[in-house]
Inverse folding.
């Protein structure tokens, strides 16, 4: 935890290689905290080479953020080579390269020896209030190695990985599912509309039939009026003289609430010499229901 002085040397042990190498402390690392010195040395010593197969196969990873106060853990999906603002904090994570199988083939190169997630590592730089607080790699299988130290949160690389092909397949499956659900909702909606329309039409027919039954069951009240005319005779005088023909107009009105069915007019005269039909079927020119 001590701060290093300008003329100090760094003694570095490469894991798995069992080599001890010494490096003079560069000017840029003078009077810097330990984690910043390590970041500077890593950048000076290594070049990052991402195989083309890795670039095309991996587009996003998941990081796990733990709130040290509440002990609550939240997982977020982040795009490779992008920026991610941690919600509720002033921390910005700049996501760099992803190595599914982190490999150190030489002292100058960091790469991935396989496209399978056998030793996953994610390069990140973490800033707080635009000041860099951490730069290094997050290892999913070794979360405590070179871990980001912060009083409020901890950050780890989630040990669950999906290639871009799997992600695209899931997204396509989700789109297909959404389309099927949308089509099903539309089908249900159309069925509901048709059902409501059928029910409205049925209610309308029932109402018409109900009104019709009311009219049929209600009594009719027929009122008749007579009008005689002999305008076609030789001597029009409103009198039916011998040998004349006249017109007798009979009007029938229904003042009741029901319908007057099969209305018949029976005609008779006390004068046997007057010739007229005995029965006339009443033919309406309007509505036979009440008021017609």
């Amino acid at each position: 935890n001590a701060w290093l002085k300008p003329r100090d040397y760094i003694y570095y042990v490469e894991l798995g290689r069992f080599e001890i190498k010494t490096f003079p402390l560069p000017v840029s690392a003078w009077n810097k905290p330990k984690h910043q010195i390590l970041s500077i040395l890593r950048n000076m010593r290594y070049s990052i080479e991402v195989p083309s197969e890795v670039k095309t196969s991996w587009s996003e990873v998941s990081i796990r953020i733990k709130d040290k106060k509440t002990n609550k853990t939240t997982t977020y999906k982040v795009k490779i080579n992008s920026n991610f603002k941690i919600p509720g904090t002033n921390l910005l994570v700049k996501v760099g390269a992803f190595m599914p199988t982190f490999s150190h083939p030489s002292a100058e190169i960091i790469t991935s020896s396989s496209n399978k997630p056998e030793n996953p590592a994610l390069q990140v730089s973490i800033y707080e209030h635009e000041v860099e607080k951490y730069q290094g790699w997050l290892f999913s299988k070794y979360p405590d190695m070179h871990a980001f130290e912060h009083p409020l949160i901890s950050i780890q690389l989630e040990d669950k990985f999906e290639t871009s092909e799997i992600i695209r397949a899931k997204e396509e499956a989700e789109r297909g599912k959404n389309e099927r659900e949308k089509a099903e909702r539309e089908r249900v909606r159309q069925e509901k509309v048709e059902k409501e329309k059928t029910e409205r039409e049925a209610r309308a027919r029932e109402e018409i039939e109900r009104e019709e039954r009311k009219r049929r069951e209600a009594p009719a009240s027929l009122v008749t009026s007579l009008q005689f005319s002999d305008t076609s005779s030789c001597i029009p005088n409103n009198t039916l003289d011998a040998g004349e023909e006249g017109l007798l107009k009979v009007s029938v009105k229904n003042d009741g609430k029901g319908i007057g069915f099969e209305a018949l007019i029976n005609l008779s005269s006390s004068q046997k010499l007057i010739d007229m039909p005995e029965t006339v079927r009443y033919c309406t020119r309007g509505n036979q229901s009440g008021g017609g």
Notes: Helices lie at 34-45, 52-57, 164-217. The CA atoms of residues 7 and 56 lie 44 Å apart. Residues 1-23 have pLDDT under 50 and may be disordered. The longest strand covers residues 91-99.
